[in-house]
Description:
Strand content: 15-25%
Mean pLDDT: 81
Helix content: 10-25%
Order of helices and strands: EHEEE
CATH superfamily: Phosphatidylinositol 3-kinase Catalytic Subunit, Chain A, domain 1
Largest sheet: 4 strands, mixed
Shape: globular
CATH topology: Ubiquitin-like (UB roll)
Strand order of the largest sheet: 1-4-2-3
CATH class: Alpha Beta
Number of domains: 1
Amino acid sequence: MDSNHPQTTPEPGHDEDLHDVLPSTKVKEVRQHQSKAGVYADVLIYKGRELQDAMTLDYYNIEEGSVIEAEEF
């Protein structure tokens, strides 16, 4: 896999991988992709930090193999 394309995995209990997402991908786009895969999260968390929809993966330094937690309320 290209190191310029992060792969993210939602948790807990979900194993949907996002392949070929670019560092310029917005969190909102990640959330949309996850919902299409049946993963509905109220909040996405990376390294203990809530991700804002308008920001990019690059903004949060999310790299290939990173884990993003998907939390439902």
